[in-house]
Design a protein that fits this description.
Layout: H1 2-17, E1 29-34, E2 37-43, H2 52-60, E3 68-73, H3 85-92, E4 96-101, H4 111-118, E5 122-124, H5 129-135, H6 137-145, E6 149-157, E7 161-163, H7 175-186, E8 190-194, H8 195-201, E9 218-222, H9 233-236, E10 243-247, E11 260-264, H10 270-279, E12 284-287, H11 291-299, E13 305-311, E14 320-321, E15 337-345, E16 348-355
Parallel strand pairs: 3-4, 4-5, 6-12, 6-13, 8-9, 8-12, 9-10, 10-11
Antiparallel strand pairs: 1-2, 1-3, 7-14, 13-16, 15-16
Helix pairs in contact: 3-4
Length: about 375
């Protein structure tokens, strides 16, 4: 069992490297082992194909016969752009397949395992399941809920302020925290801001870590009325990295240059916004502001992960809040999170949370 865990951790590490670059497919890691020797290892290719199993089998060649395969997600069993990975494993003659997470896609769920077992291959499931589920979370959200996983990033003072009353905001946090944000961008399919932030900051929203990405980061603006200027940095650089403007169905249309895609939602709400992104294949979206978009997503209970950078400073109540009004009148109505990580980063503090269902308050404390 200890060997299973060690090899699965290697497969999970491979899968994590592909996060943000394989959508609409999941990033999967695969390691092939025989007699204690690693014969092949791969992650899903950029853009989602070829799959990890196919590449690892090609690396192992004929030696894969009788080997054990460690894969982070149940091997696919349906014919799509590529043949099923389950059939490829069967043809290769592997003896055993160890799986971290089940595939929720109804075309696969349980069928990949069933194919392997029917061919006489031993299958061990749920090895490091929680870690596998975390890596596959974006894909699972898109398949089961029709929307991508949402990570909300906030950077503020200790009292939750992102700018002075006059709008001065550069920089609340230090260089180490800002570099860490680039790491977050590298692990997501897209980065999104609201139109207010786009107009105020004129950002480029690129990933500025050399070598961190091969596939361009999709840049999304929640722009209900299509107010994004043709002169904005995002539009002017759309030929380098795609820009998606998500608008309301009744938004007045205008012509944008190549690289800018207009996506109309069904309604003017946060759920429709994310459903539109899911329909276009996105699995992991990093939301970086502003306060109105953050409030809308939180109020609709659509934030799956929350990464908050706190600078050791205070601006006061007249400064701009990281999250705008949410009209919550009862504590029972607020979205709660579970802290999963907390550390210093430069002079700042980085805290990471995931959505949680907590027991009702006891009235103590």
């Amino acid at each position: 069992m200890s060997d299973d865990h060690a090899h699965m951790r290697s497969a999970l590490s491979l899968a994590q490297r592909g996060l943000g670059q394989t959508w609409p497919n999941p990033s999967v890691g695969c390691v092939i082992v025989k007699n204690g020797r690693v014969l092949g290892r791969a992650t899903t290719a950029i853009g989602g194909r070829p799959h990890a199993e196919t590449q690892a089998l090609a690396m192992a060649g004929a030696a894969a016969r009788g080997a054990t395969v460690y894969v982070t997600l149940e091997p696919c069993s349906h014919h799509g752009h590529t043949p099923p990975c389950a059939e490829a494993l069967i043809r290769a003659g592997v003896a055993r397949v160890v799986i971290a997470s089940s595939d929720p896609d109804p075309r696969v769920s349980g069928r990949g395992v069933a194919l392997l077992k029917a061919a006489g291959i031993a299958v061990t499931e749920d090895v490091l399941r929680s870690e596998g589920d975390a890596v596959a979370e974006g894909f699972v959200r898109r398949v089961t809920l029709g929307r991508p996983m949402v990570t909300l990033k906030l950077a503020s003072t200790l009292d939750g302020r992102i700018a002075t009353a006059s709008g001065e905001s550069k920089w609340i946090t230090g260089t180490a925290a800002r570099r860490d944000v680039q790491m977050l961008r590298a692990r997501h399919d897209a980065v999104m801001v609201g139109i207010g932030t786009a107009l105020a900051d004129d950002p480029d929203l690129t990933c500025r870590l050399d070598g961190a990405r091969t596939r361009p980061l999709v840049r999304v603006i929640a722009d209900s009325d299509l107010r994004t200027p043709l002169t904005s940095r995002l539009v002017q650089t759309a030929h380098i990295a795609p820009v998606w403007l998500v608008c309301a169905p009744d938004a007045p249309r205008k012509t944008f240059p190549a690289g800018v895609e207009i996506i109309a939602t069904d309604r003017r709400d946060a759920a429709s916004l994310l459903t539109a992104l899911g329909a276009h294949g996105l699995t992991r979206v990093l939301v970086e502001g502003g306060g109105q978009l953050a409030a809308a997503l939180l109020a609709a209970d659509l934030v799956d992960r929350l990464v908050w950078y706190h600078a050791p400073a205070v601006l006061g109540g007249d400064a701009l809040a990281a999250v705008r009004d949410m009209a919550i009148s009862r504590l029972a109505d607020m979205q709660r999170f579970e802290r999963v990580a907390h550390r210093g980063i430069g002079h700042d503090i980085r805290s990471e949370f995931r959505r949680a269902v907590l027991p009702a308050a006891t009235g103590m404390g």
